[in-house]
Amino acid sequence: MRLSGQSILVTGATGAIGQAICRALVAEGANVVVHYGRNRDAAEALVKALDGKGRCVPADLSDPAGPEILWKGALAAAGRLTGLVNNAGIRSEVAIDAPMAEWQCVWAREMRVNFLSAVDLSKLAIGHFRANGGGRIVNMASRAGQRGYTSGAMAYGASKAALINLTKSIAQSHGHEGVTAVALAPGWVRTEMAEAYIAEHGEAAALAGIPIARMADPQEIGEITAFAFRPSQASLNGAVLDVNGGSYMR
Fold first, then answer.
1. Which of 80, 112, 119, 210 is buried most, with the most CB atoms less than 10 Å from its CB?
2. Is residue 2 part of a domain?
3. Are 158 and 205 in contact, with CB atoms under 8 Å apart?
4. Which segments of 175-235 does DSSP mark as H helices, in order?
5. Distance CA 128, CA 122 (A)
């Protein structure tokens, strides 16, 4: 039980990756705060499955007030937090020749949910961790943030690239205070987002360029997230861990 005594907030916890992360953290001894936006039933079902090791807290991360509401709710539920997983994310598409108002709306929402909510939660977490003996932040980035992305989903790739830079900045600036940060950069993972892409473009398009010829399973992401929270892994501070089957190598 390497994570015994830890209390970790997981955003976007009702999706496939979020659920896998919560299960993996609890399996190693942590308590989790399960964030959800709209899917209360899924959040409550997950908490029930965690056998008393979870609490659920709602918040709309597309609202600038959402991160602070979530953080306060998480502290009320947990008392003290030792970790934060910025996992919540959306992937929208907008054509390069779309009207400017539509273009700006998509970019603003994508950056708000994928990046700015993580920025605000990280600010709140850093202050809390500094006052309570340290803590760790794990940011769910993406292969798209490292190698670029398709024209219609540039906002997604840009938001994930910004998340990687945020991770490195936190690691460099606050590591000496016991506040460490790690980013994960998955390629395709078997989630609803991946299935929607496959439905439109075909599975061959999704698997093209992945040497192991398969997507990651959400459980793999959960396991590596739990590993990143082990106290023994402080030297991962600032790392970007690629989980992409060899489809992008640096």
1. 112
2. no
3. no
4. 192-201, 203-207, 218-228
5. 10
Q: pLDDT (tens digit, 9 = 90+) per residue, 91-100?
A: 999 999 999 9
Q: What local confidence, expressed as pLDDT, does residue 193 receive?
A: 83
Residue 186 is assigned to a structural domain of this protein:
yes
Active-site hit among 36, 156, 197, 248: 156
Strand order in the sheet with 54-58: 54-58, 31-36, 7-10, 83-86, 135-140, 179-186, 240-243
Range of the domain at 142: 7-241
Indicate the residue type of 229.
Answer: F
Residue 249 inside a domain? The answer is no
Q: DSSP secondary-structure letter at 236?
A: G
Total structural domains within the chain? 1
Q: Is residue 88 part of a domain?
A: yes
User: pTM of whole model > 0.85?
Assistant: yes
Separation of CA 48 from chain center: 22
pLDDT in tens, 170-199: 999 999 999 999 999 999 999 988 898 899
**DSSP three-state, residue 185:** strand
State the CATH number of the domain containing residue 218: 3.40.50.720
Quick check: is 156 catalytic?
yes
